[in-house]
Amino acid sequence: MKRTIIRNCMLLDDGAEHGVISGACVAVEDGRIAYAGPEDAYRPEEGPSDTLDACGALALPGLINAHTHVAMALFRSAANDLPLQEWLNDRIWPLEARLDGEAVYWGTMLGIAEMLANGVTAFSEMYFFMDDIARAAEAGGMRASLYRAVVGLYGDGGRIADAVRVHRDWDGAGGGRIRVGLGPHAEYTCSTAVLRSCAERAKEMGCGLHIHVSETRREHEECKERHGMTPAKLLKSLGLFDVPCLLAHGVALEEGDIQLIARSGQVLAHCPGSNLILASGVAPVKRMLDAGVTVALGTDGAASNNNLDVWQEMYLAAVLQKGVLKDATAVTAAQALAMAAEGGAKALGCDGSIGALRPGTRADLILVDTDRPHYWPLTDMKRHLVYSGGARDVVLTMVDGEVLYDRGEYPKLDIKRVRAKAAEAAARLFGG
Amino acid sequence: MKRTIIRNCMLLDDGAEHGVISGACVAVEDGRIAYAGPEDAYRPEEGPSDTLDACGALALPGLINAHTHVAMALFRSAANDLPLQEWLNDRIWPLEARLDGEAVYWGTMLGIAEMLANGVTAFSEMYFFMDDIARAAEAGGMRASLYRAVVGLYGDGGRIADAVRVHRDWDGAGGGRIRVGLGPHAEYTCSTAVLRSCAERAKEMGCGLHIHVSETRREHEECKERHGMTPAKLLKSLGLFDVPCLLAHGVALEEGDIQLIARSGQVLAHCPGSNLILASGVAPVKRMLDAGVTVALGTDGAASNNNLDVWQEMYLAAVLQKGVLKDATAVTAAQALAMAAEGGAKALGCDGSIGALRPGTRADLILVDTDRPHYWPLTDMKRHLVYSGGARDVVLTMVDGEVLYDRGEYPKLDIKRVRAKAAEAAARLFGG
Fold it and tell me: What is the domain range of residue A363?
């Protein structure tokens, strides 16, 4: 058994003064949390152990990015301050048409490096060149739920069969960290036959789905014109809600959609930064929470964010609802933090096994240095984290008990090579 | 003459590929920029000089915080997720009633430490215990425009006379970095006689004013009921726009107000983070820019933000307008950056002397490390800064040619003492 004891840390504790205890430790055994609590109450079993001194930092569950297209890190800032159609038609799609597996691999590695520095330990991916993405996730050591994108208004072009193959080849890889599902892109890019077929394959394989839903008012209304019902109702009618179906965006959801999603037990991946930058609007998150929908947080791709920083999404998830609804109580700091942790765990189909620090969960955790001016004085730790803190404060990121980021260093990545290869790929995509 | 040459840096350049040039240098002579451009074109005059290696970092003008109450850093996260009236009546005002000069001094020092780490070089302050704030600004080395708060619905309680004294005692202190004006708090906290009197004293002293205006819809409408006109029109009618009058918030401004402010040449300090967290809404910034209003950025106090991070305000200034107006072109990255630099300079009455890196401006500058995953690949530097970058990337902060922050170190501050004294003050305020 491999045991690591993270000593001298703080832990969130709602019952404690300022919502935090110090003098705590977290014991990790074979990639799982064995103990998280006061250091003086820890009684390890016999056997050797490594010690990691947290230097007083706060241990948190790793943040979870529930909706992204990681390789789009290559397109960071390549297209902004533009209308959506120009963004897509003139910038993003031509760039994507030039992508190859090599570019997607290094774009994903770049995004993984960024996410690890930001304290993100797991992500839910929808893109293509999925073998390259899976290789990058495996090499990078992150936890990932991968959904091979399926588009097709006139047949699926063999994409569903390829998605089934990806599932066979990669589900359970990376020591179980990699899980594979199907990613029907959206109602407006897939025929009903393709959508239904995706649902059927997912049922057969026992895997989940991941789809964009009601990201903009326009697509939402066009679906109603085409099908006489909202996208969420259409997906339900086609069987997509018979399996776990991770729904991205939901900006234009109506009350009936929200009730349906709540009843179906599906998770909504809220992407507030992307929704703002692409001028889609603000999703009705407060109403979703009130209806009992589990909300997770996604960065979307870096072409529309422009980073992969779940801290920023937590902040936005809380403050946007307050500002837009004119209700300072709309979404609390604690709720925003839960979206990034427990909500993300449920989004990735890892409910109960990540997103919390307690005995039995996987050791996907981060250390956050709160001994910095923007955390002083200590009044309420959760509010400090969500409203004042940020990715800048992450000093260590661990997945499955393995340290993947440590104060600017990447023990498992050749970061200089990642930078150079990503720059090469970008030069190929943008050049000539 | 004291000369420092900042070598091996990048500089923004709209004409260059990706909007940036490398291999540049900035020469600082007696606190002023003497040169900023390609290193190989720099021809220094004779004489000794120090060299500072920027290690390839990007040199930017220091960001400017155009509306804040710095000492409220002591109340960080002490009151959130609450309705505005509860926030004010039950939390903030009772805390403020317990403030003393010692607490304000150390709260201000804490805020200064935070702002320096965030690359903020100047701030515009409205609060009380102004001598203590001035002492902190002087000791901390920051540039500050200080406006002693004046409230009074039934006479000013001697506050205007005290503000005049503060002007006499402190205007021009700190080697000219400290400027003093009058801070009538708001229409709803001052009688028209008090407002008019503030305007008259400001005219006599040749100084500016700083006031909250139309922060919420409610106060805006109540002013119309009381006075038959909007707050902006009332201020104009009372003579406040005859001098530079820095207007904070402006969430509820009407079209006529915006036109009036544009014609009067006044600056609006936009505080998007505070306006969201307090559920006030989103100011009509796009309409202000279209009308020709100069917009600056403010964090407001840390009790309603909860940090003093102008990067976050830049980000919000750009993306909120896009999201709320459903127009991705509404405010660009370049416009948001200009709000934090040139806009802030004008807000502080330092137009042309700070907010830009060019020969003759004061050497208020920062170095930003862009050799980090969230800046890769390099596509467009201004978009990278506003949409992906943040305070985390600031490695050095200089005011008037003096280094005040350098990779976590504060050459002029005893940061441990600041932390301890701020914690002591907070314990006194919150305790017993």
Answer: 3-61+356-406
